Amino acid sequence: MSTIFAPFVWVFHLLEDIVSWILITFHSLLAPVFGARSGVSWALSIIGLVIVIRILLIPLFVKQIRATRNMQAIQPQIQALQKKYKDDREKLGQETMKLYRETKTNPFASCLPILLQAPVFFALFRVLQGIATRKPQGLFQNNMELVEQARAAEVFGVPIYATLLNSGETPSQAATIGLTVGLIIFMSATTFITQRQLILKNAAPNNPMVQQQKILLYVFPIIFAVGGIGFPIGVLIYWSTTNVWTMFQQFWVIRNSPTPGSPAYDAWLKRKEIKKAKKGIVEPTPEAHDVIEEPPVRNQPKKQPRSKRRKK
Question: pLDDT for 35-64, tens place per residue?
């Protein structure tokens, strides 16, 4: 078993090295300004870690948006296949995969940013936990002085490694409870707002995927709220910052590239019409000198047929 899991353990240790290297690099830049033992230096280093990770994940975020839009667009076709092959699960699976290939849709692409952030999240958790217990992880193993500086760092009087569960072991239990509870509420609220933004603005009303998203709307915040009691302050800062990043990034994408049929798409069309009107792009009307007046038609007596004229 150790041989099978060896590659995963190696990757996880590599992530700990990368996370700790980014933290140490940002800290070395911020320490001369705020101080090596300052909580501001370490908190900003964690925010710097978020910025680096989220920039690296931008290509995957673009794929996530495209995959989500494609999944919404092909839902009617998937429902039709489900009705057609309701008694043949194997054929249904084959036809569904064929549809995914033809439309270039990856149903798992929408989960990639979260899945790839999870190892980073746990690597940061391990690094901060190592600082708390003086059992350093990653590149902190080579520098105990940095470990002591990080242990001394406080945010509003609370160590960055403190959790709600170990609040009694911190210099100020009341401050630790207040800050951790506040960050847990903020983290859960931003998760809820981000999911709600997708449902209300970027989902078509008749989209069957909306029901699944509504379930996640309440499930994710509850998971973070319950799990947050064991997260160190540094991890809470990390996840709160990444939620804020996601919120603004998602707002920009929904505003500029909305899903057809969604309320955001209707608002986008209205903005385009308003811009055209402001620029004066209207249908051209003919000028007075361009109008060609046709000569009036005179009322002439109708000519009678020759046969009638001869009779007279």
Answer: 999 999 999 999 999 999 888 888 877 777
